């Protein structure tokens, strides 16, 4: 027994010594503000000054432009079907072997950054699962956590949180939409009324041990410290939405026989420049600032979504070949980047993504390239992207026209996979800032690639310079490339019902339909 104890002690010492050595050989993460981090990147790139972004204040000297006649200072877009050597892309083989790799290289180097090859492994664990209700449909809900191995740099801990919800009574594996957003169970099972009464009685007894609290409780003998959550019926399932309110997208998906997953971007990478020395980007860089070609937050979120997909493809309740990606606003950008770079995602719903998403970089309408390079949003992109907002420096006076690629080519990288581009209207809060027209132009300009690969485009021709958006609530939903502008705000919720119908046709679901 004594020998066993000594052996255990020696092993423990060896493990602790190894861990200590790893921390001794690596400094703790750099603690920088976003301004300091951006300045470091400017110094690396030799940038002396960056133009300010457009202002949302119409009275400001640099007010955002909303005059369509001034919106296209650089009207000529890079041709996605012309190689760098000037030769035209005439076959799918040339696209896949030559042109697509050229676009990917430019996108990674100059816009979104490169995913490093040494990212640690992610191990998924089930925290718990339970039977719940979405609306009145019974579902199986699982709370998952994906731990990123940090043994090489213990200072940073990354745990990806994801909720997976599938219909409990499904006859087989179902299609699933992964959505960027907070990971939370739809309707956690709550104690019944009698159990709540017991918990409250116990809490009152515990609180009454403090004389001052007891005096307060004695004034309010009917007071309950815990209140049953709003929206839960006495029988334990969620109450239906109030009359006139919009049915949540998750309810629509479950009612249509789909599943969904909510993956939390913040658990992958913080949405700010100060967080670039932490999260998965910081973990790989061992707490040090980025280099110009390193990935930004959009690419990191896309990487995290792909790790969630790794798990989902092992889930027997999910059809591994019918998993899509969804996001709105900045997460709409991330969803588009995910669909473009992660080939296993089958389709996407891209909501109100604006600049850095579907809106053309070359457009001067609402948000501009400078809004990304000169503000707290620079962390979405690769460091090299800062060059295109520079007014003085090593590269001279740069602008959006110098970008080797544009957003129509990011959409084209999704081809031939189904991609549904969604926007709302400014009157309801989907501000002109996100440039709906510029996004429609980009979608039109991506069409030739879809056609080359045997998929259907919007069906409106390819002249993006004269392309005008269809009337609101008029969908172009016949092809793999789809567009619809709803009459709601900065959300894709009003388009979800149309997305489900469109996607069902694309993937032939339900089977035999």
Number of helices: 13
What name does the CATH topology carry? Answer: Rossmann fold
String of helices and strands: HHEHEEEEHHHEHHEHEHEHEHEH
Q: How many structural domains can be distinguished in the coordinates?
A: 1
Taken from the alpha-carbon principal axes, the silhouette is globular
CATH superfamily descriptor: Alpha/Beta hydrolase fold, catalytic domain
Mean pLDDT: 91
Number of E strands: 11
Query: What's the alpha carbon Rg, rounded to whole Å?
Result: 26 Å
For the record, the CATH class is: Alpha Beta
Q: Uncertain segments of ≥5 residues (pLDDT<50)?
A: 1-19
Structural class category: alpha/beta
What share of residues is helical?
A: 25-40%
Q: Into which percentage range does the β-strand content fall?
A: 15-25%
Termini Cα gap = 68 Å
Instruction: Tell me the major beta sheet.
Output: 9 strands, mixed
CATH architecture group name = 3-Layer(aba) Sandwich
Main-sheet strand order equals 2-3-4-6-5-7-8-10-11
């Amino acid at each position: 027994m004594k020998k066993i104890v000594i052996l255990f002690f020696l092993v423990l010492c060896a493990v602790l010594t190894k861990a200590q050595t790893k921390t001794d050989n690596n400094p703790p993460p750099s603690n920088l503000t976003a301004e300091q981090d951006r300045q470091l990147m400017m110094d690396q790139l030799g940038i002396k000054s960056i133009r300010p972004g457009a202002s949302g204040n119409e009275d400001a000297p640099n007010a955002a432009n909303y005059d369509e006649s001034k919106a296209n200072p650089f009207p000529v877009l890079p041709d996605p079907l012309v190689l760098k050597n000037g030769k035209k892309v005439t076959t799918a083989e040339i696209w896949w072997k030559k042109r697509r790799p050229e676009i990917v290289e430019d996108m990674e180097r100059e816009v979104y950054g490169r995913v490093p090859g040494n990212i640690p492994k992610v191990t998924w664990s089930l925290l718990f699962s339970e039977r719940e209700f979405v609306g009145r449909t019974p579902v199986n809900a699982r709370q998952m956590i994906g731990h990123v191995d940090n043994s090489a740099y213990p200072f940073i801990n990354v745990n990806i949180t994801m909720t997976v919800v599938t219909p409990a009574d499904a006859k087989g594996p179902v299609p699933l939409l992964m959505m960027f957003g907070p990971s939370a169970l739809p309707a956690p099972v709550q104690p019944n009324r009698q159990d709540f009464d017991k918990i409250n009685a116990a809490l009152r007894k515990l609180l009454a041990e403090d004389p001052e609290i007891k005096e307060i409780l004695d004034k309010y003998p009917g007071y309950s410290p815990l209140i049953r959550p709003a929206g839960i019926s006495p029988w334990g399932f969620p109450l239906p939405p109030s009359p006139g309110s919009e049915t949540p997208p998750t309810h629509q998906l479950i009612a249509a026989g789909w599943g969904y997953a909510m993956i939390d971007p913040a658990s992958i990478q913080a949405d700010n420049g100060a967080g670039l020395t932490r999260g998965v980007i910081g973990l790989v860089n061992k707490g040090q600032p980025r280099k110009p070609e390193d990935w930004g937050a959009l690419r990191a979120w896309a990487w995290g979504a792909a790790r969630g997909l790794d798990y989902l493809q092992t889930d027997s309740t999910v059809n591994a070949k019918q998993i899509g990606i969804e996001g709105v606003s900045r997460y709409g950008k991330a969803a588009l980047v995910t669909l473009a770079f992660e080939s296993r995602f089958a389709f996407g719903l891209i909501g109100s993504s604006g600049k850095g998403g579907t809106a053309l970089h070359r457009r001067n309408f609402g948000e501009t390239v400078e809004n990304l390079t000169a503000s707290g949003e620079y962390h979405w992109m690769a460091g090299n992207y800062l060059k295109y907002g520079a007014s003085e420096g090593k590269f001279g006076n740069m602008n959006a026209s110098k970008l080797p690629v544009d957003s129509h080519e990011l959409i084209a990288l999704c081809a031939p996979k189904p991609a549904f581009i969604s926007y709302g209207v400014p009157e309801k809060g989907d501000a002109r800032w996100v440039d709906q027209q510029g996004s429609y132009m980009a979608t039109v300009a991506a069409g030739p690639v879809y056609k080359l690969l045997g998929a259907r485009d919007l069906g409106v021709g390819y002249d993006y310079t004269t392309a005008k958006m269809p009337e609101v609530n008029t969908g172009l939903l016949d092809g793999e490339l789809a567009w619809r502008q709803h009459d709601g705000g900065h959300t894709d919720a009003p388009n979800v019902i149309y997305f489900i119908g469109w996607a069902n046709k694309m993937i032939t679901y339900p089977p035999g339909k």
